[in-house]
């Protein structure tokens, strides 16, 4: 890697572009100059570093709290990024009031206001409980209406700002044109770059629409993570497309985002041989971040790395070297280095030995501080805790989220007119969550019970043994029709292979058993729409493109004919369904 990265790309010599990591100078306001006047070199470097937090409110005498005090008050890091905490079984989301109270305390500790960010891909609900739950991006793509993305942007910004978060790491501008992509998938709006561009631009417009609740937006993951089959949390991925294809597909949504005034662009830990060295992540590539993003696409905003503790970076570089190379490449924000102090120390050493200039550091500092001023942190850095309850999770916002989830439901196949259920009292239901301790399927089961209190319903999880699964399936044998609700969101591929669509353990075999019975099987994919590839013989196939509770409710309403089915595929399912397909059904309520 080091050898490949050392030589400057030939393209730079031909175009006469600025040296690596030298973005255009940014004009500093009086507020920014005031902040910088008291900064040492170490203080300036610290502003580039963003550290993770879980949103809980640890005791002030706890080791965790003392660590935050050191990083915020003494090391003076520039910002925080909210991540989920795991209890060993499932990810735990932050509680709104605890989150806001913790951020207020950190803001009071900070000499310069902290910029707080979050991956609010499904609105604040991705990281914070008790907020409006939106479906995944691909569900928005299935609605065919970018206005829904604009509404999400407006609501997500309002809730984020109420909680003390000013920077949203969204929209996802990746074009998911690889069905085997294990980490983008339903996080993308779809496979058509024009649709992805339209939804990305709409979200940005929504998040910027209210001056009082203005939130910074981020297009990710540059230069396009959709055509990969490797999870960059684990290893480096490669996009092998030529430059022509990249221009037509991958780069199109980023161009649209830039034209729409996106505030930041997040880098991808992927190699792109058509643009830069074949073994160097884009995050560390001057050819991609400076030559392409800055010089050719003209982006002048913040460039933030994806998390530097991910395998796509950490497997090849230590915290210090990764931080220096990211800045050399053209990044401004060093997101979640595994060792923040080592990263800051390495950057300081690079300035002292001439590898980086202090002017280069200050260019990024000015942009970060300007972003802080843009969201009003020079005027007010704490939030009103009493106001949170009247802002987040409003009835109107939830109605919007439910409407989006309902509009997204797509009927891909409907053999024998199986949907809606003609005889729901003679149907059996099998729920397949992604894990034993998951809450997935609980809403689906509850909604079925509301309509059919005595319906046979089994919850089959991937941790069950084959005999246990066979026992549950035997209990469903008397039914005339099987309805399977299969959850597969985003994560590592199933051991059963890509065609299993994320189903793990013995669940693929259990589903095949139901299909082999010869009775109609209605497969409802709550998440990964490519699930049909693994089970092409199902009678009917319904897709929601999301695993969130509103999508579970929408699926049940569609199955029982209580809602019109209007969604269309925002992706193609190779050999089985084309982009844009979707059987349209009017509302047809059935009576038990």
Q: Can you put this structure into words, describing what you see?
A:
- There is one protein chain.
- The protein has about 600 residues and is an alpha/beta fold.
- The protein is built from 21 helices and 19 strands.
- The chain has a six-stranded mixed beta sheet, sandwiched between helices. The protein has a five-stranded parallel beta sheet with strand order 7-5-2-1-13. A three-stranded parallel beta sheet has the order 8-10-12.
Compute the average pLDDT: 92
Q: What is the number of helices?
A: 21
Most strands sheet: 6 strands, mixed
**Top CATH class of the largest domain:** Alpha Beta
Please state the second-level CATH architecture of the largest domain. Alpha-Beta Barrel
> Structural class given helices, strands, pairing?
alpha/beta
Radius of gyration: 24 Å
The CATH superfamily label of the largest domain reads: Glycoside hydrolase, family 3, N-terminal domain
Strand arrangement, largest sheet? 14-19-18-17-15-16
CATH topology of the largest domain: TIM Barrel
Task: Report the β-strand fraction as a percent range.
Answer: 5-15%
Tell me the number of strands. 19
For the termini, the CA-CA separation is 65 Å
List unreliable stretches of 5+ residues: 1-24, 492-499
The count of domains is 2
Globular, elongated, flat, extended or rod-shaped: what is the shape? globular
Helix content: 25-40%
């Amino acid at each position: 890697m080091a050898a490949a990265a050392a030589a400057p790309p030939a393209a730079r010599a031909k175009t006469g572009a600025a040296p690596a990591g030298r973005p255009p100078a940014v004009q500093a306001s009086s507020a920014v100059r005031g902040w910088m006047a008291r900064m040492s070199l170490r203080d300036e470097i610290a502003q580039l570093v963003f550290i993770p937090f879980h949103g809980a409110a640890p005791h002030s005498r706890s080791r965790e709290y003392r660590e935050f005090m050191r990083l915020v008050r003494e090391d003076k890091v520039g910002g925080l990024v909210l991540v989920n905490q795991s209890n060993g079984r499932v990810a735990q989301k932050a509680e709104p009031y605890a989150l806001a109270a913790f951020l207020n305390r950190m803001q009071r500790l900070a000499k310069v206001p902290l910029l707080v960010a979050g991956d609010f891909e499904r609105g604040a609900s991705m990281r914070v409980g008790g907020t409006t739950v939106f479906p995944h991006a691909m569900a928005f793509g299935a609605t065919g209406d970018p206005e829904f993305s604009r509404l999400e942007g407006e609501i997500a910004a309002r809730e984020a700002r109420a909680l003390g978060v000013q920077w949203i790491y969204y929209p996802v501008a990746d074009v998911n044109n690889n069905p085997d992509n294990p980490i983008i998938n339903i996080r993308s709006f779809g496979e058509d770059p024009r649709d992805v561009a339209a939804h990305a631009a709409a979200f940005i417009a929504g998040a910027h629409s209210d001056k009082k609740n203005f939130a910074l937006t981020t297009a990710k993951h540059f230069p396009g993570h959709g055509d990969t089959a490797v999870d960059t949390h684990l290893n480096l991925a490669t996009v092998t497309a030529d430059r022509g294809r990249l221009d037509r597909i991958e780069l199109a949504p980023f161009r649209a985002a830039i034209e729409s005034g996106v505030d930041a662009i997040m880098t991808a830990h992927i190699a792109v041989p058509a643009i830069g060295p074949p073994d160097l992540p884009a995050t560390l590539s001057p050819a991609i971040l400076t030559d392409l993003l800055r010089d050719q696409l003209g982006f002048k905003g913040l460039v933030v790395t994806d998390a530097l503790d991910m395998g796509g970076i950490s497997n090849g570089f230590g915290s210090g070297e990764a931080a220096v190379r990211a800045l050399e490449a053209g990044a401004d924000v060093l997101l979640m280095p595994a060792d923040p102090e080592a990263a800051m120390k390495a950057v300081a050493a690079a300035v002292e030995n001439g590898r980086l200039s202090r002017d280069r550091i200050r260019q990024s500092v000015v942009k970060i501080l300007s972003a802080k001023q843009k969201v009003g942190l020079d005027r007010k850095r704490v939030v009103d805790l009493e106001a949170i309850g009247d802002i987040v999770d409003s009835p109107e916002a939830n109605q919007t989220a439910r409407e989006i989830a309902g509009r997204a439901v797509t009927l891909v196949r409907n053999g024998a007119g199986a949907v809606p259920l003609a005889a729901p009292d003679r149907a059996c239901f099998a729920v397949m969550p992604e894990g034993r301790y998951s809450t997935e399927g609980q809403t689906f089961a509850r909604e079925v019970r509301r309509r059919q209190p005595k319906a046979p319903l089994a919850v089959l999880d991937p941790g069950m043994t084959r005999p246990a699964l066979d026992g549950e399936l035997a209990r469903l044998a008397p039914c005339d029709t099987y309805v399977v609700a299969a959850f597969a969101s985003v994560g590592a591929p199933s051991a059963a292979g890509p065609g299993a669509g994320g189903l793990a353990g013995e669940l693929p075999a259990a589903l095949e058993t139901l299909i082999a019975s010869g009775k109609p099987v209605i497969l409802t994919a709550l998440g990964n729409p490519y699930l049909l590839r693994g089970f092409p013989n199902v009678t009917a196939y319904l897709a929601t493109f999301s695993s969130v509770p509103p999508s579970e409710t929408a699926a049940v309403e569609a199955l029982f004919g209580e809602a019109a089915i209007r969604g269309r595929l925002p992706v193609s399912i190779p050999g089985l369904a084309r982009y844009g397909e979707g059987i349209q059904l009017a509302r047809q309520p059935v009576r038990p």
